[in-house]
Amino acid sequence: MNKAKDSVRYEAKVISQPMIELSGVCKDFLKPSGEVHSVLRNIHLAVAKGEFVSIVGPTGCGKSTTLSLIAGFEPPTQGMVRIRGETLQGINPLAACVFQTENAFPWKTVIDNVSLGLRLRGKDKREAYAEASRWIEIVGLKGFEGHYPHQLSGGMRKRVALAQTLIVQPEILLMDESFSALDVHTRHLMENELLKIWEETSASVIFITHDLEEAIALSDRVIVLSAGPAATVKGDYKIHLPRPRNVAEVRFDPAFMKLHEQIWNDLRDEVMISYADAARNK
Ligand SMILES: Nc1ncnc2c1ncn2[C@@H]1O[C@H](COP(=O)(O)OP(=O)(O)OP(=O)(O)O)[C@@H](O)[C@H]1O
């Protein structure tokens, strides 16, 4: 383990103001009937610079809505989203998102897709291509620069999406079920790749997943949201597993299993509530 790096991260987390802060956040949507649908209630969450936080919770509880609020796609109905201490208004300029769906444009080659973010920021083609080549190599796609997305496997397209997002060096990385469509081996490869890249940056990551094991293996903290409507933070667990981690191997660590049992106890109750609600509303 790189002790020096870990202690720098730790200091940064303790001393600095939160990178992301949700205070008293509520989010309502209007149903087509005109009724108010309360999705999130009184969410308090602070994420430090460089921290990796996963959010788990029953289906439909408001995980993606939380991510949308941090991305600035939606304003909160009540409460405040602050980014580095500033109230967020409109799109969050420090954030980049990787969704479950494909990010790449099908008519563009890998290098054109990966360099696009820099081109849109005004970098000339030569410079953008040079930087894109570096990121393509980092995500293990050297040699595929001229391929189109349809010529790649699902895992390779995910790598393109990561390179596309990371090339703009976002300070906040928002990931919504980013690896859930991948087979388990490719998924572990991508998760390890993500951790390796993240450890080289100081990005704060919010990772949404249905998979508690994935959440524990990757994160510094796992947040459990309660069943909706009006979901709130039910649990906030620190994951003190050593880094660097191998996501496939860390699952056999007894500390991992203990954490899994503890968090699952919390999460299971919410999943049961959500099943019961779904059955009642059938
Ligand atoms: N733009 C919107 N307008 C109306 N209702 C919405 C909107 N976005 C989300 N919702 C509702 O908010 C609730 C929470 O949705 P959200 O997608 O945030 O949950 P989730 O926890 O990410 O779900 P899943 O685990 O199934 O991906 C759902 O009932 C959904 O229908």
Automatic annotation (TrEMBL):
Pfam families: ABC_tran. It comes from the Bacteria. It comes from Paenibacillus gyeongsangnamensis. Residues 20-252 form the ABC transporter domain. One of its GO terms (molecular function) is ATP binding. The keyword Ribonucleoprotein does not apply. This is ABC transporter ATP-binding protein. InterPro entries: AAA+_ATPase, ABC_transporter-like_ATP-bd, ABC_transporter-like_CS, ABC_transporter_ATP-bind, P-loop_NTPase. Keywords: ATP-binding, Nucleotide-binding, Transport.
